[in-house]
Fold each of these.
Amino acid sequence: MAGTDAIRADAVSKTFTIGKESFQALGEVSLEIPERTFATFIGPSGCGKSTLLRILADVIAPTSGEVSVFGRSAAQAREERDFGFVFQDPVLLPWRSALANVELPMQLNGIDKAERRARALELLDLVGLQGFEKALPAKLSGGMARRVAIARALTLGPRVLFLDEPFNGLDEIRRQNMNAELQRIWLETRTTTVLVTHNVSEAVFLSDRVFVMGRNPGRIMAQLEIDLPRPRTIETMTSPEFVEYDRELTALLRTAYEDAEP
Ligand SMILES: Nc1ncnc2c1ncn2[C@@H]1O[C@H](COP(=O)(O)OP(=O)(O)O)[C@@H](O)[C@H]1O
Ligand SMILES: [Mg+2]
């Protein structure tokens, strides 16, 4: 697959300093994510997945190293609104309807009312929430709230979508349903996507490329290409090919844990 890289990281590291203590959260991480790829970071908790995602999205700056996004710096890409971000435990404004929550980034960017309403309706439709436009967050299930957060992240037509454990706290079946929805959205939009998870079958189900991370300091220990046809379905998950990828990724992940917990 000859294509442009959407994202490149070159020897990116991060050291957090609190008072006199400093802590290296990320060693030197280098990676490439081709355009229109679904990429995933998986690894033990505390290995720096969120830190790496935040650096790629220019939410925080690396201590050293460089990130380029479609050939520009991450900061430039952010200024040009290349990014959509769904943070861990996404927060919706409780006093705004689902529709008004999705409209918010467009409102902040001065997009006029008619246009942002039309776009928000289209996105709520895309994430399967037609009929819930007027609902307040308190009336939405956990899965529905995640859908609103994904719709909101897509409002400005990002070229890269970052998802930090977006389905945390959902039970297994709801998570599988959300994964199928996310794949459908990805197939419709083909937005380059970077997901953080610690769920092996979620990573296999969704990804083209999985980066297995280890810790102390955070680093990429292995990279696995998932070459399964799409759309992948619930049935795909019981196919021998899927089960083999699941086994392989589990083995790689075990190494990352052993390394961290001697
Ligand atoms: N703002 C911060 N200040 C200090 N330490 C941090 C900060 N953010 C993350 N860390 C530390 O960096 C390490 C990696 O964190 P994180 O990227 O959140 O891991 P993960 O997402 O893989 O669970 C952890 O040890 C965490 O405590
Ligand atoms: Mg995290």
Amino acid sequence: MTTTKLKPDWAGDDLLSRVVNRAIQTPALYALMKRQARQVMIKTAEKNGVPWRQTCIDLDTPKMRQRLEALTNPALVYPDYYQVPFHAYSEGNLCWQAAFEAAPATYAMALRIWPQEAISWQAAQARLRQSFLAVLDAHGPAQVNDMLDLGCSVGISTLSLHRHYAPRNSPAARTVGLDLSPYMLAVAQAQDAQGEIAQWVHAAAEATGFADGSFDVVTMQFVAHELPRTATQAIFAEALRVLRPGGALAIVDNNPQSPVIQALPPVLFTLMKSTEPWSDDYYTFDLEAALRAAGFESSVTVPSDPRHRTLVARKGE
Ligand SMILES: C[S@@+](CC[C@H](N)C(=O)[O-])C[C@H]1O[C@@H](n2cnc3c(N)ncnc32)[C@H](O)[C@@H]1O
């Protein structure tokens, strides 16, 4: 599932990449691309049974707005890289629309992984999470009680992580979801109807506020491609600090070496680059080297599905 090419030609400094970047920097063209991206995403998702617009209607309640207030950490200072338009939302992740659409967008994303197979969005989502967790099981610590999901968004990754380990370790399993967007956290808390998650924390993954050695597993699920490399490096250092000896940082994200990603049609990679400002930096960044530089003792990388790779890095005993 990988090629010898380290990254797609449409990322980095190649000619194709520079032409695409120029188009994105043209305001009228960029506005058109953003509108198009939204329409294509919503139409495709609903055609495949993902209740996109209904989900947004259902989530928009007065109770949700109260959750926002209760979850917001007023002392938090947002990093500059986070306060930019993202995913075609002018306020990036810091708005209700981004939070209400996050779950349907996540379900639609999983469906794109296995286009040849007639599977439901629920089955695709379960398979995506399972493929990640299988790598973590194989290369992570044997005993997992305390887990931290960095960039948890609306909690889909947090709940799947928790439900994977909780039945084995119950009642000891304790899982925390952390995100920079209080809007995402409000939706996450509402989705966590049974209160399975110990805490939803509004903080930067670079400075979680947890004590040294608090967790057995830290995850970054589909977060790194949204970050400049300096942020990823800072998060790796923080993850190492809060992990116990022998603990693991598990990352799943787009695989630059995936033939599917490398062969994305121009309209798709242009849309992707126009709505994810740190794409180029992600696709040209050596995550394994960064993990070593941060002080992780070992790491493995597995192409866990046709589009994504899972990395599991261990802290020394
Ligand atoms: C694509 S979403 C993650 C999806 C989720 N983990 C999943 O697998 O379904 C990326 C999330 O990372 C959050 N994020 C980005 N930078 C962050 C940072 N420095 N610290 C904490 N959260 C961050 C965003 O607010 C967003 O909710």
